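User: Can you help me understand a structure? I only have the sequence.
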Amino acid sequence: MMKLTTNRKLGLFVISFAAVYLILSYQLPSYAYTLIDADVVPKFLGWLLVFLGILLFISKDHETAEQKAQRNIPKKEVAVLLAVVAFIFLYIFLLEIIGFVITTVLFLFFCSRFLGYQNMKANILVSVLFPITIYTLFTYLLQISLPQGILPL
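Assistant: Let's start by predicting it. Here is the structure, written out as tokens:
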């Protein structure tokens, strides 16, 4: 009987995730007058995930005791990881309501402060200039609308 090593378990998870992802990507509507349809990239990524999952499943897994010990994550780091995930969910929730620029400024500033970045000038500069630059590029150059929220942009 085949032993389910860590790589095999992860490979099965990736293949399962890719299968669900592919089912959903094949349900995307197609458009008649486009050269490259909107479903090309999702389908490509789904099949790439299947391929990588298969490679992970068939790869040799020789794990030493030292490597097993490195896999154990301290509780403090798990708490930090969960807090960042909470930041991301809050960002997603507020994106449509408050808008891209304000939400991204707040997310970048508070997340970087939470993760320990201490240079306030650089943090404020990046937190403000990055979202404004991205919003300007997407809205005016690429003509892709991002959620404006409460700002009259």
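Now, to help you interpret it: Helices lie at 6-25, 40-58, 65-71, 75-98, 100-114, 120-141. The chain has a mean pLDDT of 86. Let me know which part you'd like to focus on.
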